[in-house]
Every structure is written in structure tokens, then in C-alpha cells.
């Protein structure tokens, strides 16, 4: 967060997740046509709460208004489906709008029943609620939020997150139960997709983490929430979320993010990758889901990303198609198939690999892991990327060629052999044994060379016989091949290299814990780190990153330092003096220290380091000065503390 008065950044107190579960939701209409809901509330251990008060429970009710519906004011205004929230109740005061008429909680079972004072379709008084477009024939949504008090939780928990439940239903006749939809309807983005970057539980969300599902966000972030026509960005979730992720200025929040507003957001993957958010992410959705809604052009969604100082689609400013007033007009030039094409642009020729690379190693004698004394041979073979045909044998036996020359020989053919995961260094090659100023070389060339007897390259393929495995080697090691013909001349004149990769186990049958597991792809996606493509291609896999970002003392910053400095937005924590303070990490970094907080006061390492043994929990048991400096160097006195206690 940013304090505009003092000009300082600070870390917002994190909320605790109470782990409340809301299940067995039913809904009915009383004889007087009042909404009545019953649900079960249990804690993380599966036990009912000792008590629950009416003020701990809040229920929202709203009508799902399909896109292009003619509204009560006679207009067909919205290209997207929205919810008009007409009902809200919390606390108990019979016959008072916005309150429960009756409330009952059974501690023995955790069953809670609430009945609205208002009837179905009656707008709650005193708030931004409207029933102007209420239609009992349309699907309705109920959003239940339970925020128990400290006393009712039975533990000292502050700023607790809520238990939530969402059901879509058809309005029943008075005195009858409602028919509930089996799965949520009209879902555009699931909360599971949000959690990939923002964490689980969804702690980075607004309102103190109180609304843990996108199905709840849309109850209020709708242009219908404050009555038809209220289309400020703060209300309209379609434009609001797109603008945030596209780093667009939002007038209402122009002092957030280092005082510059949302325009300083650093989105962690290509913005055109709509599927990053618009994916079911394992959730079963109803027939009205809109996960693929991004493929349908409309003014609200498209304009929120593409409008700028020079472009305004609605007025025609900077838009070749002129002024556009409806999604129907958009579809003339931008059909669904075209939207997919726009957001999956063709890969630039320089970023298309030249070869399909296959790398194999002689199998371990015992079939599972290599042991002391073994000398496996690494073999690398190539096929042309264009048609997957095998390359000529002369490609392997030709001498190393100059860069920017296509054909006639490769400019790069090498392997990296390194490990173990937690303390990776070059091993088992002549390069690794070549020490300069105490630092071993990382890349082992594969070109035919009479001075290196371990190179076994022939017209059948590149090959390298590794040095004998030593007794002090135990753990998971990696082998990575990089191949290039055209190679690198400049950041704009290059051809991306072609790679192959695999892990091997040495003197153990158990894998080491992988740094961060596979969580990098949650935010960054499975593709390349584009800024790296020119010199060498890198996917978001820590096992591959440490081929260069190892602990050998070579030119690359150790990965534990670089990644911590980046994700903590550190100005001084990077050992190669790169300032990363502009990075906007999508999860809170720490909790406030204090006895009343039930979670540790340390940085929220789980955001990246998740999983069981073998899947990235190393942070729990090891301390690295590289990672500590990466996160903490900006704090006055921290670096001195590290040095005084033996750091380097």
C-alpha cells in the first residue's frame, strides 16, 4: 500500500482465514412470500460453531439480467450479463427492511435458518438496491456471507475472512421451496482462476477479504447495483477488472500502487492471454456459464482494455470502424473466431525454435538412479522444426559456425549438467572442472573436439560421456541442452535457441524438493520469459532457471536472490543491483506481528512455496542469505544485521 501523505510504502495487515464451510443450502418462500434460507455452518475442523448471531450473517439476493435485456427504462443497455441486487439482510429486527424477520441457529448441528423481513422482489430500503428489473421468471442469485464474531468463533481471531455460499434459483410460489440450479450460472471468471495469482484463500481481494468468490463480486460490482445508468468503473466489474490488469488509469483510485494508481500494475504474463482468467479451472459450471464470453466482442470488455487517450470505440476516435454503439455492430468486423485470433497472435519468426531437440541419457544400471562410479553418456539429436525431418549428419560434425549465419553449422551446441536442486553447481563435465578464479564453467560444448575425450559426437548425433559420479553427489540433478544455428546478434536480431531438459537422481531414489514446485506457471503461464528469448530461452521452471542462476558464482544472480528481490519489489535486495521496486506482487507479503494474529508474522512464503515433500516446501527448513537479502535489504539496518552475523 502507499501513504500519499508521508510518501511511504507499507504492508497491509493480512486477514486470517477461519476455514468456515457453508453447505446444504436450501431456499424457500414463506406463506407471506418472504425469502427463507437454511444452511449449515462448520469450522475448518468440521465442527459446528458454539454460537452464531444474526449480525454475523449477511445475505444478498439479486436477479440475473441476461445481456441485451430490455430494461425497465425501455433501453437495451448492456452487452454483458449483470445482476440487479434487490435484497440485503443482516441482523434481526422484525418487519424492518434490511433485517431478518426471524433467525435461528442450532449449535449442536450448525444449522442456521434466516427469514427476510422483506418479500421477494422488494428492494431493501436505505441502500443501493433496486428491483426495477426484478422478474420472478428469471434466475435469481443468493449470496450468503458468514463473519462470526471472536466470541462465536471460540478463538482469538482478528480480521477473519468469511465463510460464503452461492446458489442460483428460480423464485418459488409462496409457501413452497425454490428449485436450485445444480451449478452456478453465467460465470465469466471463476475465483479459482483469481487464486492462481492472488492466492488461496483470496487474501488480496478488497473489502478485507470478505467476498471470497467472483460470484459474490458481481452482486455489487454491477451497473445495476445503484440503479440503471450508474456505470462508473468502480461499479462495473467488467471494465474495472480489465482496466486493473491492463494497467489502465482509474480515476477513483489514482493514488494506489506507489501513489500512481493502477497504471503501475505489472501483469505477470502476456495481456492477450485471455485464458489465464477465462478458464473453468476445474469448477463444474452451469449451462449459462460465460467462461468463453471473452470471445464475444462488446464495448464494455473491449473498451476497458483497448480505449486510451487516442482510442475511444464508442465515439469512433482512433477506431477504423467508426463509432460503435452495440455489440451487434462489433460482431460485423470482429466475429468470435477473429477474437480468438487477436488474442493468440502469431509468434514472431525470431521466437520460433529452429529444431525439435531430443536428449537421452544411458539408463542407470539399477534402473532407477545413478550411483557412484557410473559414467552415463548424454545424446542430443535434432529434427527440423518446420517439418520434423531429421537433420543431416553433417550438422553434428561441422565446426562451430558464426552467429547470424543460417546453415553451414551451428553457432551453439552445449549441455549444462548441474545440481543438486538446493545448491546447484556445474558437475560431471570438463567445463565444470575448468576453474577460473574459483568459479567453474557452466556450459559444456558438444562440437567435435580432439582435446576433450568425453565428447563422443558423430554424424548420428551430439554425445558427451559424463565424468564418473562421485560419492559426495546425492540428490536430484539436471541436464539441459541448448542448440542454435542463427543465434544472437542483438535483442532485436536473433533466433531463439532450441532446448531439451530432464532431471536425474544420483545416489538416491528420492527426489529433492523442487524450488517452488510448479507454482511459477500459476501466475506466469507455461510459456517463455520473453525478455530472455534473445540470448537464451527460458520457461517458467525453476529446475531450468538454475542452469545459469546457480550457486557457482558465475555471472547470473543466484535464483533465490533474484526471485525474492523481484517478488518483494526490492530496490536494494538484488545482488546485481537491479532495482525491482516497480513490481506489483499480487499477494500480500506478510502478516502483522502480534499475539492476536493466529498466523506467523513472516513473509507469506506459501504464495510460491506450496506442496508436500518434493513439491517446493524447502523454505520451511532452510535459510539462505540470498533470499533473506532479496526480501529484507530495503529495511534500514537489515543488511548490517546479515553481515554482523556472518553473511557475505
UniProtKB/TrEMBL annotation:
This is Decaheme c-type cytochrome, OmcA/MtrC family. It comes from Geoanaerobacter pelophilus. Residues 188-343 form the Outer membrane cytochrome MtrC/MtrF-like domain. InterPro entries: Mtrc-MtrF-like_dom_II/IV, Multihaem_cyt_sf, Multiheme_Cytochr_ET. It comes from the Bacteria. Keywords: Signal. The keyword Nucleotide-binding does not apply. Pfam families: Mtrc-MtrF_II-IV_dom.
Amino acid at each position: 500500500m502507499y501513504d500519499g501523505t508521508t510518501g511511504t510504502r507499507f504492508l497491509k495487515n493480512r486477514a486470517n482465514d477461519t476455514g468456515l464451510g457453508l453447505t446444504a443450502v436450501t431456499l424457500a418462500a414463506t406463506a407471506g412470500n418472504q425469502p427463507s434460507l437454511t444452511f449449515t455452518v462448520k469450522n475448518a475442523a468440521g465442527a459446528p460453531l458454539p454460537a452464531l448471531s444474526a449480525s454475523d450473517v449477511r445475505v444478498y439476493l439479486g436477479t440475473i439480467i441476461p445481456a441485451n435485456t430490455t430494461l425497465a427504462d425501455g433501453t437495451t443497455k448492456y452487452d454483458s450479463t449483470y445482476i440487479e441486487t434487490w435484497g440485503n439482510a443482516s441482523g434481526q429486527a422484525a418487519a424492518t427492511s434490511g433485517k431478518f424477520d426471524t433467525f435461528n441457529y442450532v449449535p449442536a448441528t450448525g444449522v442456521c435458518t434466516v427469514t427476510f423481513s422483506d418479500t421477494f422482489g422488494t428492494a431493501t430500503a436505505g441502500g443501493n438496491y433496486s428491483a426495477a428489473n426484478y422478474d420472478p421468471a428469471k434466475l435469481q442469485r443468493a449470496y450468503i456471507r458468514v463473519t462470526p464474531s471472536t466470541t462465536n468463533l471460540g478463538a482469538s481471531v482478528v480480521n477473519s475472512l468469511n465463510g460464503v455460499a452461492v446458489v442460483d434459483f428460480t423464485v418459488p410460489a409462496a409457501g413452497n421451496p425454490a428449485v436450485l440450479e445444480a451449478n452456478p450460472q453465467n460465470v465469466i471468471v471463476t475465483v479459482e482462476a483469481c487464486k492462481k495469482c492472488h492466492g488461496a484463500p483470496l487474501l488480496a481481494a478488497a473489502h478485507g477479504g470478505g467476498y471470497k468468490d467472483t460470484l459474490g463480486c458481481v452482486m455489487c460490482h454491477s451497473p445495476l447495483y445503484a440503479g440503471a445508468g450508474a456505470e462508473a468503473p468502480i461499479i462495473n466489474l467488467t471494465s474495472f477488472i480489465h482496466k486493473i490488469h491492463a494497467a489502465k488509469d482509474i480515476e477513483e483510485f489514482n493514488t494506489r500502487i506507489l501513489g500512481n494508481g493502477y497504471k503501475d500494475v505489472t501483469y505477470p504474463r502476456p495481456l492477450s492471454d485471455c485464458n489465464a482468467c477465462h478458464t473453468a479451472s476445474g469448477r463444474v459450471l452451469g449451462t449459462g456459464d460465460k467462461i468463453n464470453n471473452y470471445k464475444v466482442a462488446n464495448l464494455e470488455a473491449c473498451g476497458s482494455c483497448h480505449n486510451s487517450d487516442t482510442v475511444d470505440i464508442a465515439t469512433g476516435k482512433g477506431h477504423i470502424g467508426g463509432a460503435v454503439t452495440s455489440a451487434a455492430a462489433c460482431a460485423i468486423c470482429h466475429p468470435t473466431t477473429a477474437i480468438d485470433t487477436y488474442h493468440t497472435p502469431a509468434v514472431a519468426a525470431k521466437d520460433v525454435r529452429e529444431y525439435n531437440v531430443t536428449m537421452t541419457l544411458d539408463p542407470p544400471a539399477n534402473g532407477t538412479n545413478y550411483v557412484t562410479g557410473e559414467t552415463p553418456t548424454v545424446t542430443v539429436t535434432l529434427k527440423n522444426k518446420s517439418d520434423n525431418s531429421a537433420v543431416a549428419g553433417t550438422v553434428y560434425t561441422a565446426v562451430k559456425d558464426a552467429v547470424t549465419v543460417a546453415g553451414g553449422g551451428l553457432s551453439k551446441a552445449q549441455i549444462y549438467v548441474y545440481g543438486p536442486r538446493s545448491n546447484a553447481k556445474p558437475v560431471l563435465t570438463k567445463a565444470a572442472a575448468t576453474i577460473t578464479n574459483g568459479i567453474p564453467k557452466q556450459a559444456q560444448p558438444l562440437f567435435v573436439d580432439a582435446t576433450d575425450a568425453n565428447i563422443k559426437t558423430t554424424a548420428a548425433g551430439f554425445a558427451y560421456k559424463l565424468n564418473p559420479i562421485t560419492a559426495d553427489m546425492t540428490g536430484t540433478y539436471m541436464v539441459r541442452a541448448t542448440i542454435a544455428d542463427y543465434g544472437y546478434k542483438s535483442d532485436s536480431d536473433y533466433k531463439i535457441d532450441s532446448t531439451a531438459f530432464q532431471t536425474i537422481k544420483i545416489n538416491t531414489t528420492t527426489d529433492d524438493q523442487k524450488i517452488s514446485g510448479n507454482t511459477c506457471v500459476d501466475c506466469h503461464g507455461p510459456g517463455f520469459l520473453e525478455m530472455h528469448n534473445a540470448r537464451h530461452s527460458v520457461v517458467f521452471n525453476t529446475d531450468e532457471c538454475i542452469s545459469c542462476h546457480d550457486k557457482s558464482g558465475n555471472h547470473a544472480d543466484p535464483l533465490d536472490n533474484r526471485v525474492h528481490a523481484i517478488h518483494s519489489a526490492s530496490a536494494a535486495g538484488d545482488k546485481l543491483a537491479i532495482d525491482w521496486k516497480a513490481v506489483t506482487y499480487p499477494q500480500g507479503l506478510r502478516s502483522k506481528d502480534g499475539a492476536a494474529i493466529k498466523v506467523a508474522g513472516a513473509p507469506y512464503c506459501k504464495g510460491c512455496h506450496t506442496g508436500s515433500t518434493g513439491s517446493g516446501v524447502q523454505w520451511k527448513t532452510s535459510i539462505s542469505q540470498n533470499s533473506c537479502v532479496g526480501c529484507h535489504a530495503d529495511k534500514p539496518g537489515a543488511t548490517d544485521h546479515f553481515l554482523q552475523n556472518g553473511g557475505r
